[in-house]
From TrEMBL, chain A:
Keywords linked to the UniProt accession: Phosphoprotein
Descriptive protein name: STAS domain-containing protein
UniProt-listed SUPFAM superfamilies: SpoIIaa-like (SSF52091)
Ranges of residues in domain STAS: 155-266
Automatic annotation (TrEMBL), chain B:
Matches recorded under SUPFAM superfamilies: SpoIIaa-like
Biased composition, class Acidic residues, residue ranges: 120-131
Residues annotated as domain STAS: 2-113
UniProt superkingdom: Bacteria
PANTHER family: RSBT ANTAGONIST PROTEIN RSBS, RSBT ANTAGONIST PROTEIN RSBS-RELATED
Sequence segments annotated as region (Disordered): 118-137
Entries under CDD domains matching the protein: STAS_RsbR_RsbS_like
Protein name: STAS domain-containing protein
UniProtKB/TrEMBL annotation, chain C:
SMART domains associated with the record: HATPase_c
Key words, A-Z: ATP-binding, Nucleotide-binding
Name of a matching Pfam family: HATPase_c
InterPro entries: HATPase_C_sf, HATPase_dom
Single annotated GO MF: ATP binding
Protein name (Swiss-Prot/TrEMBL): ATP-binding protein
Length: 282, 137, 134
């Protein structure tokens, strides 16, 4: 329920009238909750800023958090949750930073408070805390998405192994998204380097399930459509067992025990000498 | 209606598809190629699709037909330059272009044809030894 | 929820090309990845050709859509043709009545995130597909 403009005005006066004791009490309450993970100076500054933002929003006649007059307050709250989320505080710890204003206000007002006013004010603070909570979740989500993306970048190198041969050493668990990135990058590298052979080495993959096998198979078929051949290497004994147990058909795709075997296989096919031997021609 | 140009280079007909073909243009290309193979007596056809941002089942079927028809006319077809995104999409679509030889680019395609001319293997041979021809050169 | 819709008639071969180009433009605008653009344009090409060949022509509507988390594209293919008698069969790989490869419907379904088909014999067919950004 929105405040009446009248109430907003009274809160503005109240907040400016009791500014100092209120900020002090508020900071104290928040500090107890964060258990010393923020310096009291920094916390004091944040709280004072927030207090001012609340006061200004009310003074400008904000009756609801969504109002134009509360824009600055919303920005402050977003900033706060942004800050907290990045510093690894929990959602509760973040929301409490706002909720504590209610206790601080009640104590500062003492007996002077009128119940109806206080309930309205309390409702407004609740909405502010929920708003903070929401933006906290948004920040965390984008953090997670960023990290997932960085992980993808990190973990999918495609290396040129030999003239006309590229390799992707896969390390770690392959999920759908990663498998897709690997697939695209491998195929693009084939085009960029004009390499007709690719070796997919799965030595570092702890487990192969049907989905992962499907992705590898699709990559191999796509590479064939483009005019390149894929060899899968590094299949460990237990993975070979799983593949058979799951009934996955690798069909006519070449599989080799190690990356070295795979490279030897390719060089043999292309009629090149293996890495150990001297190259006599060009 | 636009027409896809067909160039003769030595013993090869080179087709580079540069436009988003409507179905009629694809069918016209199929006819033009058959006529040019007979008229020129070449033994190889290279179709460069590196400019195509999609290959749907109609274009896929046209390519397969071109390959089959040229084979009857004693010419080998190589489709070159398929983009990765196109290949991934074709796999998902379920189109495997059976009987079509492929290479990464025109150069590798020419090398593939050069190797083919000597042997007389059936063209739908699944085991691809072909890319081999290129790396040695 | 949705923004501007764009409509195109599908009556000739060239219209199928125009549908592809429109879908490509919108796919770029909503920032689909290159592979997803390619998948969507390919699906649109298959379905627009179906509308033309089996539905005897019709209309395509391309709309940018949003949900809370991401953007996407919705494409509706509508015709007043003969409809599909056996939907189950029509969605089977390799089944065709038109001399194609029989991958149009079933293949297109694999290329998009949402696929809905509404058909009535003698009345026509409406196919709605949606592709979301990752």
């Amino acid at each position: 329920m929105p405040l009446s403009p009248d109430e907003a005005g009274r809160f503005a006066d109240l907040l400016s009238g009791h500014a100092e004791p209120m900020v002090a009490r508020w900071t104290e309450l928040v500090a107890a909750n964060l258990r010393g993970r923020l310096s009291s100076a920094e916390l004091g500054r944040q709280t004072a800023d927030l207090q001012r933002a609340f006061q200004q929003a009310f003074a400008a006649g904000a009756t609801d958090l969504g109002d134009e007059a509360a824009a600055e307050l919303r920005a402050q709250l977003t900033e706060l949750s942004n800050h907290r989320a990045r510093q690894g505080f929990t959602a509760t710890e973040t929301a409490v930073s706002v909720y504590a204003l209610k206790d601080a206000a009640l104590e500062a007002l003492g007996d002077a408070a009128n119940l109806k006013d206080y309930v309205a004010f309390s409702g407004f603070v609740d909405r502010a805390a929920l708003f903070t909570f929401d933006s906290y979740v948004r920040v965390r989500e984008s953090l997670i998405a960023d990290q997932a993306e960085q992980l993808l970048e990190l973990s999918t190198p495609v290396v040129k192994l030999w003239e006309g041969v590229v390799a992707v050493p896969l390390v770690g668990t392959l999920d759908s998204a990663r498998a897709q990135v690997v697939m695209e990058r491998l195929l693009q590298t084939l085009v960029d380097t004009g390499s007709p052979y690719a070796i997919i080495d799965i030595t570092g993959v702890p487990a192969v399930d049907t989905q992962v096998a499907q992705h590898i198979l699709k990559t191999v078929v796509a590479a064939r459509l483009m005019g390149a051949d894929c060899i899968i290497s590094g299949i460990r004994p237990q993975i070979a067992q799983t593949i058979v147990a799951l009934g996955i058909e690798f069909g006519d795709i070449a599989t080799k025990a190690s990356l070295a075997d795979a490279l030897r296989h390719v060089l043999h096919k292309t009629g090149q000498r293996s890495p150990g031997a001297k190259r006599t021609e060009r | 209606m636009e027409r896809v140009p067909v160039l003769k280079i030595g013993d090869i007909l080179l087709v580079s598809i540069q436009i988003d073909m409507e179905d009629q243009v694809a069918l016209q290309l199929q006819e033009d190629l058959a006529e040019r193979i007979v008229a020129t007596g070449v033994h190889g056809v290279i179709i460069d699709i590196s400019a195509l941002d999609i290959v749907d089942s109609f274009v896929g079927r046209t390519l397969a037909t071109i390959a089959a028809v040229s084979r009857v006319l004693d010419a080998e077809t190589v489709v070159v330059g398929m983009r990765p995104a196109v290949a991934i999409t074709l796999v998902e679509l379920g189109l495997s272009l059976p009987g079509i030889r492929t290479a990464l680019n025109v150069e590798l395609g020419i090398a593939l044809l050069g190797k083919r001319d000597v042997g007389d293997e059936p063209a739908d041979d699944e085991d691809e030894d072909d890319p081999a021809a290129v790396t040695t050169s | 929820m949705n923004e501007e819709s764009q409509r195109l008639p599908v009556v000739t071969d060239q219209d199928v090309v125009r549908v592809r180009q429109l879908v490509r433009t919108v796919a770029v605008a909503v920032k689909l990845s290159l592979v997803d653009q390619t998948k969507l344009v390919t699906a649109a090409s298959e379905l627009a050709r179906n509308t033309l060949v089996y539905g005897g022509g019709g209309e395509v509507e391309v709309t940018r859509v949003h949900n809370e988390r991401r953007g996407g594209i919705r494409i509706v293919f509508a015709d007043q043709g003969p409809g599909i008698v056996d939907l189950q069969l029509a969605l089977t790989d390799g089944y065709t009545t038109g001399g194609g490869l029989g991958l149009g419907l079933s293949g297109a379904r694999r290329l998009v995130d949402e696929f809905e088909i509404d058909t009535e014999v003698g009345k026509g067919t409406t196919i709605t597909v949606v592709k979301w950004c990752r």
